[in-house]
Amino acid sequence: MAQTLTLDQLALQLAGVTSTSDARAVVNRASRIAGVPDNRALNAFELLKVCQALTAEGGVIQQMAESIATSALE
Q: Which of 16, 42, 58, 59 has the most CB atoms less than 10 A away?
C-alpha cells in the first residue's frame, strides 16, 4: 500500500473526468462521509474509505475511484 494522496491530489485526478469544481465538490462530500482529515496526506485506509464513498457517485467517478483504490492496494 504505497500510494497516499491528499484530498487536493485526489480532486486533481478526478478533474480529468469532470470539471475541477465538480471534482472538488465530490471529494469534499466523500471526505466528510468517510470522516477523514483534510489537512494532510491520507493513509491507505483513509484513502480507501474516501474511494468507497466516491463510488456512490456512479459513472466515471466510480470508475476512477475504483482505479485509485486498486492502485493504493498495490
A: 42
The yes-or-no verdict on residue 53 having pLDDT over 70 is yes
pLDDT in tens, 3-42: 678 999 999 999 999 999 999 999 999 999 999 988 889 9
User: Closest Cα to residue 4, out of 57, 60, 51, 62?
Assistant: 51
Domain, as residue range, for 37: 7-73
1 lies in a domain?
Answer: no
* CB proximity list for 57: less than 8 A, separation 6 or greater: 26, 30, 65
Residue 2: inside a domain, yes or no? no
pTM above 0.85, yes or no: yes
Collapsed DSSP state (helix, strand, coil) of residue 1: coil
Q: Cα 27 to the chain's mean position, in Å?
A: 6
Q: Is residue 55 part of a domain?
A: yes
